[in-house]
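Subject: Predicted fold for Beta-galactosidase, 642 residues

User T.R. writes:
Posting the sequence so we have a shared reference for the thread.
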Amino acid sequence: MPDVIAYGGDWNPEQWPEETWEQDVALMREAGVNRVSVGVFSWALLEPAEGVFDFGWFDRVMDLLAASGIAANLATPTASPPPWFGDAYPEALPVDSGGRRLHHGSRQGFCPSSPIYREKALRVTEQVATRYRDHPALALWHVHNEYGCHNARCYCDTSAAAFRAWLRSHYASLEALNDAWGSAFWSQHYGEWAQILPPRDTPSLPNPGQQLDFRRFSSDALVELYVAERDLLRELTPGVPATTNLMAGAHWDMDCWAFAAELDVVSTDHYLIGARAEPHIDLAFAADYARSLNGGRPWLLMEHSTSAVNWQPRNRAKAPGELRRNSLAHLARGADGIMFFQWRASRAGAEKWHSAMLPHAGVNTKVWREVSALGAELAGLSEVAGSRVKADVAILIDHSSVWAQDHPAQPSSELDPVEEAKRWHAALWRAGITCDLAHPEGDLTGYRLVLVPALYLVSDSGAANLEGFVRAGGVTLVGPYSGIVDEHDRVRLGGYPGAWRDLLGVTVEEFFPLDGPIRLASGGSGSAWSEVAHATSAKVLDTYATGEPAWTRNAWGDGAAHYLTTRLDDDALAGVIAAVCAEAEARPPATSPPGVEVVRRSHPDGRSHLFAINHTAEDAVVTSASGASVTVAAGDARVIAG
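User M.O. replies:
I've generated the C-alpha cells; pasting them so everyone works from the same file.
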C-alpha cells in the first residue's frame, strides 16, 4: 500500500468519446484523485475478435494517466467475456440448478470450471501484462472483478466432472464420502464416483453434505481462477502486487478467508443497503471484516458509492455529508484507499443510474463539491496511511457454517447466522468497541473477548481453538444453535451444544423454536428460539419465567465461557455484551453519546488518530480516557491526531 491515502474510482473511458478523456483527467486532478481502476470491463474492445487485439486506445489511456501523475489499478478484463466468446463456445456458459443455460448479455457469463474460459482469460491477461508491465502508471493488478457475484455456482456437466475431481481429492475413498454425507438416508448411497452430480433440482430436499461440499467446491473453483491469473502476473510483472475485490460482509458465496490468503492486499467493495435502519453500522461490519481478512493490516476500499446505487428496489440518494462520513468510517477501520464506482456516471447501460464522482449534472452539484472536498481532506491525512486498528474483541465467522445452516431443513428459518453476527457486532458498535472478525481456526491470541453469535458448524480443531483461548484466560460468549454439527454437517451426539458442552457447562436436550416472544426473569425477552437446557457445571445468570437457563457462565481454566439459549432482544443482548466486555476488560477508546462512532488507528511508534463520526442530528461531546473532550457537530466527523 502507498504512503498516502489512495483516492479515486473506476474510470471507464471506453464509454466516452476520446475528446472527454483530457477533461476527465483534469477534473481528477482538481478533485485530488491519485488512483483509478481501468480496464475492468474492456475485454470486448481489447480483443474485439478472437485472437485479434487492439491496444492503441488503451495505450493512450495509460499514457494520459502517467503524464498526469495518476496511478492505475490495472484490471485484467476477465470478469465479462465478450459476445464472441459465448457465440463460439456456448458450452462454456453457466448453467443453473434447473439445467437452464444462461446467455451473454450482462456480465460474468462463464462457467468457473470451464477450461475454455480459463484458456481465453489467461491469454488476454498475458497480453495485457506483457504490454504494460513496465508502464509507469501501473501500481496494482486488479484481477477480474467481484468473483462469483453472478455466477458463484454452475451446474453444467463440466462443473459436475470438476466437482467429482474435487471430491476425490478431499475424500480418501467413496465410502468416506458416503459416511460424510450420510448417504444411507433416502437410498442415496453411491457405488461409483460417476454417479455423483452437483445438487441440481430434485423432487425434495437436497442432501445437506452434498450441498455443503458443492458450495465449498464452487468457492475453490473461483479461487483457482484468481490464482491462475495472479501467478501469470507474478511471472510477467514480479514486484507488482495483485488483488481482487471481495465484497466482504455482503457476498457470502465465496469463502473470503480462503480468497484473502491468496491476495497481496485485501480489497473490497461496499454499498449501503437502504432498507437497513442504520446502514452505517452495516458499513462498519464490512470494514471490520475486510481489515480482519488482511490480518489487521491496512486494506483497500475498491468501490463504494458517492450517492445512490442502481440495483435496490428504492435507490436512496445520500444526504449532505453522508459521503464523507461513509468514507471516513472506512478509513477509520483500516482502509488506506477510498475509491468509488465510478468516476463519470454512465450515459447508457445497466448502471446508468448508479451515482459517480462526476455526476450526470456535472460539477455544479452537491456530489462533486463533496468529492472534491474529500480529496483535499484525505491528502491532509496521509500520516494515517500504514497505521492499524487494535481490537480486543473478535467475532467468529465461517462461510462453511453459513452455507450449512442455509440448508432448508432447519429447526427454524428465523435464525439467520449472518444477520445474528451483524446484530452482535452492532451491539459492540453502539458500545463504542471496535472488533475484528476471526475464523474459528484462526489465531485468537491477543483478544480479551471472543463472541460466537451463530456458529452452527465447527470442526474439532475450531472447537478446541476456542477452548484453548478460554483456558488461557479469555472470555467467550456463545449464542444458541452453535457447535451443533461437525465439518460435514453431521450432528454431534450426546446433547447440544455438542462441540462445547464441557466448555459451557451446559447440556441441551431439545430445541424449542418460538412463534412469539418469551419473557426472562431479568425483564428482557427472547425470540425465535429457546432450548431445554441443564447447567451441569455452569452458573445460571438468567432464566425463562419457567426456570430453565437462558444465560449461563462457566469457569474454564483461567477464563470463563458464557452461553445464551435464546435470541435476546436488542436491549437485553446489549446488556449481556456489556457485562462480558466488562469482565474481559474490553473498553472503547473514548466515551461518546449514542450514534457517535469512535475508532482509533495507531502506528507502532505511538502516533495515532482518533476518528469521531457523528451520525446523529445533534452536536456530541467525545471524551478520551484522560478526560480530554472534543465536540463533534451534528452529521460531522473529526480526525484528531495524538
